[in-house]
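Hi Y.,

Following your request, here is the sequence exactly as I used it, all 455 residues.
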Amino acid sequence: MNTGFDKQSAAFKKFFNGTGNMKTIKVGMIGFGTIGTGVAKILTQNKDVITKRLGAAVELVKVADLDITTDRGIKLAPDVLTTSAAAVVDHPDINVLIELIGGYDPAKKFLLQAIERGKHVVTANKALLAKHGDEIFSAVAQKRVSLGFEASIGGAIPIVRSVREAFVANRIQSIEGIVNGTANYILSKMSDENCGFDVALKEAQQKGFAEADPTFDVEGIDSAHKIAVLTRIAYGTSVAFDDITVAGISSITSEDIACAREFGCRIKLLAISKYDGRAIDIRVHPTMIPVAHPMANVNGVLNAIHVRDDLMGENILIGHGAGALPTGSAVVGDVVEIARNILAGVGKRIPAASFQSEEIRAVPLKGIREIESEYFLRFNVLDKPGVLSTLSGILGSHSISIESMIQRRRAGSGEGVPLVMMCHKASEKNIQSALEKIEQLDAVCEKPNLIRVEK
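Below is the corresponding structure, written out as tokens. Let me know if you'd prefer a different format.
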């Protein structure tokens, strides 16, 4: 009986000897930090279940890192560890190279070198893909090798696999995500315990949820990297990272949190990408979400990604977005997927960027002033007659109508009082123009604060 195996390529046959004994997929890794340690533990401790599901063993044969002496809680053979990245990139037997050092350089160099040598590659490096994705996706297409990057977005959430495979027939209309666990932990703590940003950040750092320098996380940069990559695979276009509107959560106050609660909302750092068939609206900023929506109740370090398309309507994926084992699990998932391709004699089964290379095209981006949204506005104004009517008049003259309003407390003589408003849908251009005029008023004590609302 012909099983079809005799028609497989040499790439398949080399993993099995003449007796039919099982062979191994050999893996190399550059970067032995938190995620790298998780990957090593999974490949070692769960080796049996991987082998049973794959039908072949996966062996970690080389791991490169500048520090190979620190105890990471896992024992690797002495000949596996090296301080030379070239020892991994140039290793003739390695089929799949995992890059986990992060940043732009030398990570980009190592990936491109591995691709040039015909190795399949896996990375968790969203910053690299957001900034230099065109070059990397082009390289894997030319060499007909696979690129796995599930771990770069949402940790253990299988969003890349979902978009590239499960939603392959769907016209995606929008992707909105809580994709940074640090920011989500801080906002959740501020909401649940009525504390300020600085207190919540300090606790996040003490618990290991935030870096000593949390700028990328709290200022939205990490989230912007992720939504740039998601936009590429969702719509078949690349996005210049510097064209994304990005705002972080460091300006969010306990006053904003309390007002959101009174309006029936919670504040989340949301990464947003919407495509109307003509242009893409892509941005990252604090956003008010009604408490009735599932995304509003994704708290702590959890991540959530909301996808809307023409066939299934809405779908929400929720899971752990960071950590050694959740992210390591996503990396290993990519390795096993690539291993299956190798065993089947297939160099590349799915386009790395989801679309065929010749179908990638440029799509214009909407400027932030072109969007429409509902808005939460917070003013600090002198408590005296006529101020409210003046603010309402300026907003009205810019076609902005007020849905509801809260005056938080009375002020002492000469002191400002918080005045907050929820506005009906309006254009960003009109909102910004109105706020520029309001900021110049003598009765306004500080720069007005704006939070967009997504319903």
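The CA atoms of residues 159 and 166 lie 9 Å apart.

Thanks again,
Q.
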